[in-house]
Write a structure and sequence with these properties.
The protein has helices spanning 3-6, 11-20, 28-32, 63-79, and strands at residues 35-40, 43-49, 88-97, 107-117, 121-129, 135-145. The protein is an alpha+beta fold.
């Protein structure tokens, strides 16, 4: 599929297409090792495995890793509602951290779901759980529809 064809895809179609590629384009998700586990209208699930590179000065996973994971799943959940050629950007992100995470190959799973998608503004919520199912962080976002 060429670039011109991609412009005709809805947000949901574009996300599904991108995740089906053998060699996806460079992105923050690729850099951090994030994987798309589920993509449905209004709901996206992604996961990653922690590693020592994610460490903060205290030796646990830096909060920015969870924030990035949450921003990604919530933004992508909003994107699944958008028509071809319509974009979005994060206006506000609020994250609550619940527990520390080790850097030694802990699987984090994030789920983002839309709350409201209007013509100009969308809101969503997200949660990150560790491999034991414990809540690690939760968040809300407001996105501007472009």
């Amino acid at each position: 599929m060429n670039d011109q064809d991609l412009s005709t895809l809805s947000g949901l179609e574009l996300l599904r297409h991108t995740t089906s590629l053998d060699d996806p384009p460079p992105s923050i998700g690729r850099l951090l090792g994030m994987r798309f586990d589920e993509i449905d209208e209004g709901r996206v699930v992604m996961s990653l495995d922690t590693r020592p590179d994610f460490s903060n000065p205290l030796g646990t996973v830096h909060g920015g890793i969870c924030a990035t994971l949450l921003d990604s799943v919530m933004g992508c959940a909003v994107h699944t509602h958008l028509a071809a050629g319509v974009g979005y950007t994060t206006l506000e992100l609020k994250v609550n951290y619940i527990r520390a995470v080790a850097t030694d190959d802990v699987t984090l799973v994030a789920t983002g779901t839309t709350i409201h998608v209007g013509r100009r503004v969308a809101t969503a919520e997200g949660k990150v759980h560790n491999q034991e199912g414990q809540l690690v962080a939760h968040a809300t976002t407001t996105c501007l529809i472009l």
